[in-house]
Amino acid sequence: MSPSAENPPNRPSPGARCFRAVRADQKLSEIPVNVSAIQRTIAPALAPYTDIPPAETARQVWQDLAGHIHVLVPEVEQRARGPWAGTDQGSITLSGIACVHRKLRRGLPGNDTLAAWAATQELARQCQILLGLATDPVVYEPKH
């Protein structure tokens, strides 16, 4: 299902649930991440194919992933700058976010369907990592 005016990305329908997690401020709250919708976007992008899907499919999946990433990044960034600040996890996470931003700015390769699909699959993997980081429980260990 693609996002539309009736079904915007990462805005769950009234019956859908948001993910509940401990945020970087150590308070349990609902994070506006529709995990199921993101997983439904990632799965076909990473599925094995015998024939490469058309470029238009790559473009649509890329756009859907970009929408999910724009919701996930603030959640993950908050953790990297909060409880993970000054740790390897925080540094690696911020570097990964910078990489995703560069990839989104570059966009899809224009004339090559294979390159467009490969770039879409790479973005799906990065989205999958961000989803894992956004939904993992935050364990706060004070620095000594």
Descriptive account of the structure:
- The chain is mainly alpha-helical.
- 56% of the residues lie in helices and 6% in strands.
- Strand 1 and strand 2 form a beta hairpin.
- The chain is elongated and about 45 Å long.
- The N terminus is likely disordered.
Question: What's a quick, concise take on this entry?
Answer:
The protein has 144 residues and is mostly helical.
Please supply descriptive tags for the structure shown above.
single chain, 144 residues, 4 helices, 6% strand, mainly alpha, disordered N terminus, two-stranded antiparallel ribbon
Name the average pLDDT.
81
Backbone shape: elongated
- How many extended strands? 2
Helical residue percent band: 55-70%
Structural class per helix/strand content? mainly alpha
> Residue ranges: pLDDT <50 for 5 or more in a row?
1-17
Report the portion of residues in β strands.
5-15%
Strand order of the largest sheet: 1-2
Radius of gyration (CA) equals 16 Å
Q: Helices and strands in order, then pairings?
A:
Elements: E1 19-22, E2 28-31, H1 35-46, H2 55-81, H3 88-106, H4 113-135
